[in-house]
Structure formats: C-alpha cells, structure tokens
Design a protein that fits this description.
There is one protein chain. By secondary structure, the protein is α/β, with parallel strands linked by helices. It has two domains: about 170 residues, Alpha-Beta Barrel (TIM Barrel), CATH 3.20.20.30; about 90 residues, no CATH class. About 35% of the residues lie in helices and about 10% in strands. Strands 1, 2, 3, 4, 5, 6 and 7 form a seven-stranded parallel sheet that branches. α1 links the parallel β1 and β2.
C-alpha cells in the first residue's frame, strides 16, 4: 500500500448520495493517495467505505475514524478483512472512541477510552473468520491525540502484534505537524518549545497556529496516515487567527485530555 502521496480528510454526510461518486472520483483524479472520511451520526462508516471503494479504482479509502463503540470487534475485524479481500491494498481501518457526548447522541455507551481500546483490539485479534483470507491484512490505525492512546498504537504495544496489525502510529485529526511531533518524539529529544505543546487542553498552552512547521521533531515517528491541515500561503494570515478554534474544541473535552 503506497501512502506517499498526500491524502484528504473529508466530512461526507453533507453530500447527497448522487454527489458522493463524482466527489470521490475527483479526489482520485487529482492524485491524492488516501480519502479519509468521518463517522458522525449519519452514514455508517464501513458501508460508506464499501461504496467509495466501488466508485474508485486506485485511491486508498480510510475510515477516519469508525467509532468502535458502534460495532462489535468481530464486526469491525471481519468487515476490514472482507474489504481487503475484495479491494486488495485499498482500505485502512481507522478506529477511535469519539467522546462521551457524541456517543450519547448515538445512543451507545462510553467507557474509559484506553482500557476499552486495548480490550477491543484484543477481541479483534481473536475474531474467527471463515471466508477466503485477504492477500494482506487490513492496516489498522487508531484515532489518537494524547500519549496514552498513542501508546496503544505503538509497535511495542501488545495490541500491535497480531493478524490484525495496528499500524506504528496514531491518526491525529485535526492537528498540525508540530503538535504531532511533540506527542511522538521522545521527550529527551524535544526542544523546550516542542514540550510546551504537551500542555494542549490543560490551560497552559493552546494549539500551534495552522501552517506552522515542526520544530525539533525531525526524527519523530510520523505515520503516513497522519492528517494535517494545509493552508494556502495567501490565506495563512487569516487561518492563523481562526484556525486554532476547531482544534481547541477537541482538546478541552475530558475524553481527549485523558486519551
């Protein structure tokens, strides 16, 4: 699976059914490598992913993220296996926990996110599957914003060595490169300016402005699935004044502060 080309991260529930196919094909024709789509309280994630795969030919489709609380582990694992059999090398399963308020709207439960995700991945690993095996297992990435959940997705995690591989890195969105580098670069290799980004959401520091490049994190372990906002240079001044607002929303919710 080639993830070297930039990807796009989109919200598709505002498009009608007839608009989805032209949109996906346009993204593919522009040369993007991955089309990441969200799951809110609209279309079910894996059903939508299947449709996007049937409407395109080459682009990788990634759930960014499918809410784990909305489906049993065997459903997530075997849907991913089926898609990787039918569309080899073209689907990434991004999983996340969302947050307590969002799950209340969905009518599903919410538990301590890190423990829940560890158990969820363990159950995915043991899920039986009696259909033809895919040529390669589906990559699995975790929606992660803070060190505890990033630790679940790390290569050293016991959850990351199995027939259901957890990719060596998180899927952070929305964020910017310097924030992500500060979370994934070992603390001893960070500059003081980068360490300050670890205060996101705690009242000490806010998110770094959109468009700013990483500092001191040149050797950080960035996963190619990471989603970063890219702002046209002509609009950067305006973006810096308003860009942090949607990012801050995530970092002030209790679930994101502890995961």
């Amino acid at each position: 699976m080639d993830l070297s080309a930039p990807g796009v991260f989109v919200f598709l529930d505002n498009l009608s059914g007839p608009e989805l196919s032209p949109f996906a094909r346009k993204v593919e024709s522009l040369g993007y490598g991955v089309l990441w789509y969200t799951e809110g309280v609209g279309r079910e994630s894996l059903s939508l992913g299947t449709y996007l795969l049937t409407q395109t030919e080459r682009i990788v489709i990634g759930s960014g993220i499918a809410v784990a609380f909305c489906r049993e582990p065997i459903a997530a694992a075997n849907a991913a296996r089926a898609l990787s059999e039918l569309f080899p090398g073209r689907f990434i399963l991004g999983l996340g926990v969302s947050n307590a308020a969002g799950n209340a709207r969905r009518g599903v439960g919410y538990e301590p996110p890190v423990t829940f995700m560890r158990n969820y991945l363990a159950r995915m690993k043991t899920a039986p599957y009696e259909a033809p095996a895919p040529p390669a297992e589906t990559p699995v990435v975790l929606g992660s914003l803070h060190p505890k959940m990033i630790g679940v997705s790390a290569p050293r995690s016991p959850c990351s060595s199995s027939a259901i591989p957890v990719a060596p890195g998180p899927l952070p969105a929305p964020t910017c490169p310097s924030t992500y580098a500060s979370l994934t670069t070992p603390r001893r290799r960070q500059r003081p300016a980068d360490r300050r980004h670890r205060g996101l959401g705690t009242g000490r520091r806010g998110p770094c402005p959109a468009g700013r490049t990483p500092r001191g994190g040149g050797r950080s372990r960035l996963h190619p699935a990471a989603q970063f906002r890219r702002i046209a240079p002509a609009r950067r001044a305006r973006a810096r004044s308003v860009g942090p607002a949607p990012v801050k929303v995530r970092y002030v919710r209790p679930s994101y502060l502890t995961s």
